[in-house]
Specification:
two-stranded antiparallel ribbon, 9 strands, Helicase, Ruva Protein, domain 3, 11 helices, Rossmann fold, 2 domains, about 280 residues, elongated, seven-stranded mixed β-sheet
Length: about 280
């Protein structure tokens, strides 16, 4: 019989040959998923024989990953801001970089004198909306998306983390569905330039929803539309927080200045020192 160590080594070779980053880590996570356990168990039981069912399932999962299907879509979940979120091909996979937006939004919300009203535009999996609702127990968060499929995933994650009564899902274009003005507008909108699409990793280009990534020529078309429409949806002293690409800081700052000439506009860097977030404080 094939044991845990042997199965992992075989998968590592396959994944490595197909250009998958971190092949050992991903093989261990896939085996944990196939066996219904966790990576710590895999590391602690290298000599444990796999049942035929476990081995078949693991090899099927490894074959999917070798075709560059993202790990999160294979396992059906991704951790974000300490929360285990359901994800599937209907939504963009949450990235660690987006946690910076959540951190800054929490800082701003906690300075308010009362409960925060927040809009998460382009909610997708609900990563931002759910994380904010979990950490702001008095807040109301409007999760907005233009199609029903992502909102179904947002709803599932809100239920999973006990905040479904305060994460309100609304379908429509950008901020149009909002029933009231809010203190914070948070958005991880598409910002990849259409001209960059062909150079993206296969995991992104072939599997993740293009509508959640492609921001048109230069990458800022959707962000431009949001900035142009945001002012009437903000309460006095409100703020807009926008995730951006690493090369878009100055262009995004200029756009924000056009639509909010009296606001304080700041570009924040992520932990890699790259431009990642624009904050417009009115």
């Amino acid at each position: 019989m094939v044991d845990v160590r042997q199965a992992v080594l075989q998968a590592v070779q396959t994944l490595e040959s197909e250009g998958v980053e971190s092949p050992r880590l991903e093989a261990e996570l896939l085996l944990a998923h196939a066996a219904g356990t966790n990576r710590a168990w895999v590391l602690a039981h290298p000599e444990r024989p796999l049942t035929p069912k476990e081995l078949t399932r693991f090899r099927d999962l490894a074959a999917r990953r070798a075709r560059r299907e993202p790990l999160a879509y294979i396992t059906g979940h991704r951790e974000f801001f300490g929360l285990d979120l359901a994800v599937d091909p209907r939504v963009l996979i949450p990235r660690p970089e987006t946690e910076l937006l959540v951190e800054r939004a929490l800082d701003l919300a906690r300075r308010l004198s009362g409960p925060a009203l927040v809009a998460d535009v382009g909610a997708g999996s609900g990563a931002i909306a759910v994380a904010l609702a979990v950490h702001l127990p008095d807040a109301t968060v409007y999760a907005l998306d233009e199609t029903p499929d992502p909102l179904a995933v947002t709803s599932e994650n809100a239920r999973r983390h006990g905040v479904a009564d305060r994460v309100l899902c609304l379908q429509g274009d950008l901020l149009a569905p909002l029933p009231e003005a809010v203190h914070l507008v948070c958005a991880n909108l598409p910002y990849v330039g259409s001209e960059e699409w062909g150079a993206l990793a296969p995991e992104i280009r072939e599997y993740e929803p293009r509508a959640a990534l492609d921001g048109g020529s230069g990458g800022l078309e959707v962000i431009r539309r949001l900035l142009a429409s945001a002012r009437p949806h903000l309460r006095p002293g409100g703020a807009v927080l926008l995730e951006i690409g690493a090369a878009q800081g100055e262009a995004a700052r200029a756009l924000a200045g056009e639509h909010f000439p009296r606001a304080r506009v700041e570009v924040h860097q992520d932990y890699a020192g790259l431009d990642r977030l624009v904050i417009v404080q009115t």
